Every structure is written in C-alpha cells, then in structure tokens.
Amino acid sequence: MDSLEIQAILLSIQVALCSTGLVLPVAVGSALWLSRARDSRRLPLDILITLPLVLPPVVPGYMLLILFSKNGFIGSALYDFAGVEIIFTWGAMVMASAIISLPLMVRTMEVAFQGVDSRLELASRSLGATRWKTFLYITIPMAYKGIIAGALVGFTRGLAEFGATIIVAGNIPGKTQTIPLALFAAIETGQEVVALRLILVSISLAVVVLVAYSLLIRQKRGR
C-alpha cells in the first residue's frame, strides 16, 4: 500500500470512532425515550431520526452543505465570529457519518432498552433513587450490551459512509479521502489493484466488527 491508501484507512477509522462517540449520548437518550414513550408522543422524534436512513445519503449531505457553508445559517456565523470553516474538512466528515449512523444506533439500542424489566426500575424509584441513579445503576447495566452493539453498528456504518461525505467534504487525497472515497477514485481511474486492496481492507474491518456484534448478541440471548 502507498501512503495515501494508509491515510485513507486510518482516516476512515478515526472518523468512524469520532462520529460514533459524538452521537452516542444522543443515540442513548433517543433510544431510551422512544422505548418508553407512547406511540402518539414518539412519532415526531421517530420520523426525525429515521429520515437519514430512508433518504438518499446525498440529501443529508446537501442539507449539511447548506447549513455549514460560508453562506449557510450556521457556517456563516462560525466563519464570521471564529474564523472556523467546516465544509471540506475533517469535521464535516464526522458530522456526515454521525447523522447517517444515528438511526441504526438508535434502533439497536431501543430494542435493548425495551428488554429492561420496568419493575426493577419502579422498585428502584420506590426505594428513593432518583431517575438519574435508576438509569445509571439499573437501566444501563441491564442494557449495556445492546448499547455496545448499537455503537458497533454505528461504527461500521461510519466506515462505509460515502454519499453524504463526498458532498460536504469532497474527495481530497490525504485530507478528506476515506476508504469508500479512495475506492471510488480507484475504480474511476482504472486502478484495479488498489481497488481490490481497499475492498479487502473494508471487508476485514467489517468482519471484525460484525463478529464482535454477533458475540454480544449471543451472550445477551444466553442470559
């Protein structure tokens, strides 16, 4: 592998890790609320979270481009007051991956929270524990494997993100080029050997994460 391929692999892992960490608290909070809310109350948040999953990835990417470009509502404020530019940077890649990964993380974690015995939570509250303590000492220990599984799914999706990323970050070798973008460039320019190497790396990373996910699910079912 040449240096650009190695940089693309390392950048993909870094972006996937950061996007997963960035969106993890949002995913946990959203999944917990959706698992407890009534159907009529959960519908707006359910639709909002699911939209990036059912829309073409280019659509969330374009929306981020509108918001965070120099002329965008948020981007112009950041640039005028702090001199910060988001578009076509590493930060834009993290945001794009986070938005695309969020729905899958929430769905996985929601199932885990639905499996928590509500009677134990009620017993904890009746003994004087606050909602926060009940969440930390009852809910999280009973659902932590599902939370980890959701984070693994989000990480894997972040590794594979292409559509939204290429809109907000471009495909700049050594700067914003991840594995999917480098693979696209290799195929487009006829570099079959490079494309094959990147495909093998992608499959290897995905298999490692999916094996870990499968082991967590099996342990959960065993219990």
Structure description:
With 223 residues, the chain is mainly alpha-helical. It has a single domain (3-119, 146-222), classed as MetI-like (MetI-like fold, Orthogonal Bundle), CATH 1.10.3720.10. The chain has helices at 3-36, 39-54, 58-68, 73-82, 90-114, 118-126, 131-160, 163-168, 179-188, 192-222. Helix 9 (179-188) packs antiparallel against helix 10 (192-222). The radius of gyration is 20 Å and the shape is globular. The relative contact order is 0.15. The model has no long low-confidence stretch (mean pLDDT 89).
Calculate the terminal CA-CA distance, rounded to whole Å: 44 Å
| Net shape | globular
Integer average pLDDT = 89
Helix content: over 70%
Summary of the model, kept short:
The protein has 223 residues and is an all-alpha fold. It is 82% helix and 0% strand. The chain starts with a helix and ends with a helix.
